[in-house]
Amino acid sequence: MSDFSIVTATFNAGGSIRRCLQSVRENRLAETEHLVIDNQSSDDTLEKVRAFGNVRVISEKDNGIYEAMNKGIRSAGNELTACLNADDAYLPGTLEAVKERFESVPESDIVYGNILVNGREVKPPGGIASFGGARIFHPAAFIRRSLFERIGYFDESFRICADLDFFLRAKESGAVFTYLDRPLTDFALGGLSTVRRKQTAAELRHILIRHGYPHLFAYSYYCAMRLRAKISQFSACFRKGAS
Which residue of 16, 169, 180, 190 shows the fewest CB atoms closer than 10 Å? Predict the structure, then answer.
């Protein structure tokens, strides 16, 4: 069983990158490698990464996070790959537990688990909201590099939801998803999918239609996401006003 190649895309992540790097170091197995793909940061990101040591760095202009992820996965030296955001962190024992699951279920193409959000454990959605089991958290997903080689990499035309498109393609290809019911990653709110909620909803609608979901279902899901975003904005403004 090959070890892990962890890919982290960065851009001006100086305030959070050390926590991410430290979490990989503390989880590191014998041959684990950590690749940082940097979009020419103008802050102290690269200084902190290089001072940390034992990290492969590629720093050059890219066209978004999924191009950076693809670049890192193509450069990976190990069979098991994962993409960890610069402001996220693996929980203790994550890589060991994931490797054990790949070994116990060797036909697995993807092993995935839960995330922590503000200290609360969150599991992937079930039922119709799971999109056939493809709606999993990419920061808590570990993917064989051979699966990317078989079905293709992240579609860089999507700026926010290319991971969902990839997981749907994986399901359609017959890839084996294996669930590990434990929190694997401490997830930080404030990423692209959190901040750009309207664009996220529009991309998700496009992806669902691409993968054969009825237009009415896709549009209804889009409207539900937009409504949740409006309610969240209203609640935030109300709390701010109340304080």
Answer: 190
Tens digit of pLDDT for each residue in 169-203? Answer: 999 999 999 999 999 999 997 544 444 667 888 89
Distance between CA 243 and CA 203 in Å, rounded?
A: 35
Residue 233 is predicted with a pLDDT of 45
Tell me which residue has tokens 């929980």: 91
Q: What is the number of other CB atoms lying within 10 angstroms of the CB of residue 18?
A: 17
Q: Which helix (H) or strand (E) holds 90?
A: strand 89-90
Pairwise CA distance, residues 214 & 220, whole Å = 10
Q: Strand, coil or helix: what is 143?
A: strand
Give the strand pairing for 80-83 and 177-187.
unpaired
DSSP-based three-state secondary structure for 39? coil
CA–CA distance from 170 to each of 82, 87, 90, 143, 220 (Å)?
15, 26, 24, 10, 24
pLDDT at position 28 is 94
Exposed, middle or buried by CB within 10 Å (0-12, 13-18, 19+), for 108? Answer: buried
The token pair at 51 is 């001072």
Q: Which run of H or E residues covers position 74? A: helix 65-75
